[in-house]
Amino acid sequence: MLMEILIAVAVVSVIGAVLAALLTVSELFFRNYGPCEITINDEKKITVDGGIDLLSALVAEKIFIPSACGGRSTCGLCKVKVLEGSDLVLPTEEPHLSKEERENGIRLSCQVKIRNNLRIEIPEELFLVKEYETVVDKITDLTHDTKEFRFALKEPAEIRFTPGQYVQILTPKYGKSTEEVYRAYSMSSDAADKNAIELIIRLVPGGICTTYCFEQLKKGDSVKLNGPYGNFRLSDSDAPMIFIAGGSGMAPIKSLLYQMVREKISRKCTYFFGANKVKELFMRDLMEEFEKKLPNFKFVPVIAKPDANEKWDGETGLVTEAVRSAFQKASDCEAYLCGSPGMIDASIAVLKELGVTEDHIFYDKFA
Amino acid sequence: MKKTPRMQQVEEMLHSSQIVSGGFFGEDRRDLTEIIDRDTAQVTAGGSTPAELTTKMRKITSEAKKGLGMWVDLPDNRRARIDEAKGQLICPWPHPFRCDKRVTTLENQTTGESIIWTDLNIHLIEEHNFFEGKGSPFRIEPALLIRMLF
User: Fold this and answer.
1) Is-contact A78 A67, C-beta < 8 A?
2) What predicted TM-score, i.e. pTM, was given to this entire model?
3) B contacts of A365 (beta carbons < 8 Å)
4) CA distance B129 to chain A (A)
5) Which phi and psi (to 5°) does residue A215 adopt?
6) What is the complex's ipTM, to 2 decimals?
7) Scanning every residue of chain A, which has its alpha carbon at the shortest distance from the alpha carbon of B68?
């Protein structure tokens, strides 16, 4: 009886092992798509091993598509146009794609599995995106939860970017964070300062990258960045401008102000900057310098709720309310916004009330 | 208890880094059922229910959103703030649920205690009674949550 049971167990085990081996071997044959060719913008051709996702294949070729979620299909940033060779849009992509985008072949590159040759289209400017080996040159405390990081460029040693653009920081595995992730931050530096990149980063509770920057990074550490990305930039018009930012949203606005000084842009400009407390206001000296150098520039700090012991006779309340009370009408203005999605949505609502048309409101919704 | 294939599939997803870096289990070696049972028992012992907790969490998040990233004062010397990031989080259970990447910080200025949660935490507690594993960045201790909310 015992022998029969042992034989039965052995037979079942052998059958299981054979089936597992068959599955492994069949995967090697049937899921091996061989080399596949990707034609990019009908100009560049790359050959990759099939079976991997398009985003990884492009990154391996040093073609960087913005992505903030490490290929989990949660950020919706890595959009490319697939002209030929695409399979169906996956359910994971649907919430990130409009009907029009789906009809035009837009896909999330992290969700496109390469199984055959592909013909794709990406914005030309992404060919200019490079990966930068950098070293932390300086870390400046701005408030209790905001710091400015200065990264000296090593290889390549220079960056060319348009003020308002952003880079991505590669956060390596550390502590409980088990995989590399990229996170995007607007550059705060003067674009004329070609050998360094400055970023203003606010600590996000539980944030993978911000925790890494605040707790791990120190002067002299090596950091990989890639960029520049984004279309947030000053327009060529002469329209008066309203800048609205809060916290780390200061970054791209500071870069735009350097540009205005350098290029002697004399457009009328009012910058509303929101902070929680007076002690959380930063770079006031720098803003005063900009006010001296730019005769039509005015900096309006807005404190949400000053402490009783804080001396403050400036604007109080929400930054959006300060904008509303400063203008009766702003239909001739352009607005440049940087902050959290909620702050941007609230600002857009107020600006529209003041008559600013949607095509004159520019923003990058990055926290 | 023997795990159902569905439970096994969920556990694998919770351990993986597919949705959030490091997964939802942290350093917790217990299985999903045990985590859920222990945390639910703590909630009951604290005189509450997951539904009651999530109603209060959602209300605080909604209040904090009005601050546009600044602290918003709440009754009982508490304050709350929202931090937002681009993108969405998806539920690790096999059903369609997505939410914005939003972190609510609730601080009790009298005791100095604070707690953070994401919109996904609210869903996980409400729908799955899951407070995440110990050591996970967004683990919520039921006892602390009850102290902070009531």
Assistant:
1) yes
2) 0.81
3) 86
4) 21
5) -100, -20
6) 0.74
7) A343
